[in-house]
Amino acid sequence: MSPVTANPPAALWRAALPVAIGVVLTFCPVPAGLAPHAWRYFAVFAAVMVALVTEPFPAGVIGLVGVTLIAGLGLPFSAAQTIAPTFRLPAESIKWALAGFSNSTVWLIFGAFIFAMGYEKTGLGRRIALMLVRRLGGSTLGLGYAVMLADVVLAPFTPSNSARSGGIVFPVVRAIPPLYGSLPGESAGKVGAYLMWTAFAATCVTSSLFLTALAPNLLALEMVKKATGLEVSWVQWFLGFAPIGLPLLLALPWLVLKIYPPEIRASAEVPPWAAQELAKIGAVTRREWTMAVLVVVALGLWIFGGRWIDATLVALVAISLMVVGRVVTWDEIVAHTTAWNTFAWFATMLTLADGLNKVGFITWFGQRSATLLAGHSPLLVLVALVGFFFVVHYLFASLTAHTTAVLPVVLAAGAAIPGMPVRTLALLLVFSIGIMGVLTPYATGPAPVYYGCGYIGRRDFWRLGFIFGLIFLAALLLIGVPWLGLAA
What we know:
- The protein is an all-alpha fold.
- Among the domains are: 1-97, no CATH class; 104-336, no CATH class.
- It is 72% helix and 0% strand.
- The longest helix has 30 residues, at 458-487.
- Residues 1-6 and 80-87 have low confidence and may be disordered.
């Protein structure tokens, strides 16, 4: 049932708030130094961002309405009316509105969702997770590493951490605690709470470790490219975050064991259970082998083939071969509403963010922010901006909404500071997107799944989110700043 039919008063409030904010901003005095059409554009943009938080409609609908309204008003081209024939404006507006749908990054995001569907439909993802549990499940700490490794193996090809952790890893992990009498409630602390938090925290780190492990990563990188001209390949992303992410992943199960210790430290029953589940699955099927080969080839081309073939083309070729090889069917792709909704959502969000730059709002904001931050060292400003970008996620329930609303303005503020290492700032900002998902029970897609499973109490979830948020942010700054500065 949709929110509109389920709860009309709540739905009305969710829709009224962004509209009210847009109207109020529209009629506020235009700030000095900013063109009137740029301020009206920002008013619509702000209304869209608030709507993404209140969610009166699906995100794709919100983005489409925002792009349509702006294009209909001709806002990105209002300043050109004095120098361009009026009859050209409608054509230019619709061309701008549809630009996001032809963006290669948006298609790469869509392709990665189809990869994730292939993992699920073939059963390859579940098989990999069970194999790791069977091999490493002899102790509770070993189980923690098995859970973490399962996410690492799946992450490069699953841009939805909800699908990866919530849809593949969580069902496997959820079946383990009852073997020890660890159930939601009083017995959760035996082993279940430890495993659930380890799985959740691990997926936040892997979401930052790989460019293709989280859809907002790709969106953020495209926004950085448009704002600064900085281009980052799949390999450059991995090498940039690996000195931060790999130590975090290696230490994570042990850290959780120390900070949130389980009552049971041994788990002799789990490897036999995993072996039984694998026996039920049976031998590796032809579809699984086909999926595995396509995954390995795609990863190899993403890493080594960038000089000869575009990353998006690799994904499209792989999808074509998945259909031809009957790994997935065309009807399954057409029916993948999450992939298509994300496609529309990201295409429109990318267009809206690009419009902020087109009308001059980003440049204006950067100059004003630089004036306020003047007199401080670039390093101090860099740390402050990254810290602000990370902590402000407490206010957001969507990594994509946060990225779209906050990244351009923070990046503009930093870029306007004389002597600022813009590449280092940009990379630290985009690297923080995945790991900030650990902060709250609503910070990222898998968070409600692990919060709602009953193993981690409300107080513990918020406490652990704060502690691990500090650990992740500290690692990002203490390792990332010198590492990325040297790499630059």
